[in-house]
Amino acid sequence: MRKINVRSPYYIEVNEVQKPTLYYALQKCSDSSTGYVSEQEVGDFSPALNNNDRVQDASLNDYTVVGRVDITQGTYTSVGLISDTGEIGCVVPPADLFYKLIKCTDPNSNTTFLSFQKTTDTTLADGQRVEFGGDYYTVSGEAEASEGTKIGYVNIIQGETGCPQVIPPIAPQTQQVNCGDTVNVATDVGVVTYQVNTPETGTFRVDISGSEVPAKFTLKWDGNEATTNYIGLDVFDQDLLDAGVPIGEIATGDPSTKASNFLEINKATASPNLVELVVNAPLVNDEYTLNFTCPVTPPIVIEETTQINIWFDASGSMNTTLSPLQQMAAGNLKNCLVQFYNNDGTEYDKYVKVRSFSDERTFDRASQPPTETGATNCINIVFQDEASAIYLNSYYNFNEGHQTPAYRTDITNLRNTLINNPSGYVTPIVFQVASDGYSGAFKPFLQTVLNGGSSGSPYSDPAYNLSDLQSRVKFYYDVVAGRSYASDPNYYRDLIIQAINDLGFSLTCP
């Protein structure tokens, strides 16, 4: 009891305030987590602990003091009895070390390359050769992650030190070969490219045979590739790796995978003509043999749905040829070809017709697609004696330096028709009729279109000639006009049948 004051006769009852019990709040060093407290009270330590003092629990886990707390005012986890280590702050672990690498192909690079492997993961000596991503490196000391660029987990080349010896590059070689050629190579090293030009479509194949030293063969056409990777005997694998060949490109074996192998690629269109086989031989090769097999154009097929247009130049200079052509189509040619139209004369008459044209645009008619209902392919047979002035500037003399816009348009369309469609969809056959006085320029013009012009001539441009498509077209010269002794329809029938047979068919007329 206490008096209110010394003069007062009254007393008041006073309750003593109980002080809270305090414990040390702790932060765990291993993961910086909080919410931990000591089992001991603050007063149990003398001298008292200060913030950031390091303590340990019975399991030797490190903590730092982060304050004092009343455990009744929150949720805490006791770590048990703690002891003062006499140290300040958590122990800072040493930084991880990685292997420094020097890139063999760029030893003076300003970049410090590091392995993903730590020095505690594996032991590598300075100068040890390692590989990553197809590149070789050598070990050159140790460094922290912040001191360089980590490239990945390197492959350790056991027993090898320093960079592999680099074979001096050999100047690439290019050789021209033809369809059906066989190439025998004794020894070589470096890169050789074999080039074949063919307008044919279909499967292009190269058969490969050889001994043991590995080489890589890659067949290319129009951006498409097929490769063997490095084939040969597997005892040379380390030599390939030392030469910088990525391990994923090694396809050797025992016995040698070069002994019998092949490559194929689908040549889907006539153009581009060029097919290449690239041979990479990083080691001194022993020998190999190559056999080149080009696609073969299938023969022309006459079916029940084949449209045959016999185009007659009706511009006036060869009118006497029209009648025997019409007689031929309705008579002896019909007798020969009706068998392909199920011996149905009506079907033959529907699909096989003599058609007149007067604009003298040879290659426009040659490129005409099937037009009759139900027709699936078309043979365009053109009888013509001259093409002035639509293609030429003279009846009598051919000027190779002259080329008309109409010609460029028509030859471009014909090329596109042949290149962008299957063989046999459109088949052009051109007969140059030797009419009196009008054939002087037309014959050499056709010959130049078929074979290509001389150097510097506009006809030498592959885009404006048919030299790469000669297996798909047929030109015939000096056909006798109808006003001469050759007015017999059999003459024209035999010409047409011979032309069709020259394109791969085999017809025998009754």
The number of helical elements comes to 8
CATH class of the largest domain: Alpha Beta
> If you compute it from the alpha carbons, what radius of gyration comes out, rounded to the nearest whole angstrom?
46 Å
Largest sheet composition: 6 strands, mixed
What number of structural domains do the residues give? Answer: 4
- Could you give the order of strands across the largest sheet? 7-4-3-6-5-8
Uncertain runs: none
Through-space gap between termini = 149 Å
Backbone structural class: alpha+beta
CATH topology of the largest domain: Rossmann fold
Say how many strands there are: 28
Give the percentage of residues in beta strands: 25-35%
How much helicity do the residues have?
A: 10-25%
Walk me through what this model shows.
The protein has 510 residues and is an alpha+beta fold. The protein folds into 4 domains: 23-88, no CATH class; 97-161, no CATH class; 173-293, Sandwich (Jelly Rolls), CATH 2.60.120.380; 306-502, 3-Layer(aba) Sandwich (Rossmann fold), CATH 3.40.50. It is 14% helix and 34% strand. It has 8 helices and 28 strands. The chain has helices spanning 237-242, 322-330, 332-337, 345-351, 362-366, 405-419, 442-451, 489-502; strands at residues 2-3, 11-12, 23-28, 36-41, 53-56, 62-69, 77-78, 83-88, 97-103, 113-118, 128-132, 135-144, 149-152, 155-161, 173-176, 182-185, 190-197, 202-210, 215-221, 224-231, 261-267, 274-281, 288-293, 306-313, 352-357, 377-384, 426-433, 474-479. The strands form 6 sheets. The chain has a 6-stranded mixed beta sheet, with no helix packed on it. The protein has a 6-stranded mixed beta sheet with strand order 13-10-9-12-11-14, with no helix packed on it. A 5-stranded mixed beta sheet has the order 15-17-22-19-20, with no helix packed on it. Helix 2 packs across helix 8. The protein starts with a strand and ends in an 8-residue tail after the last helix.
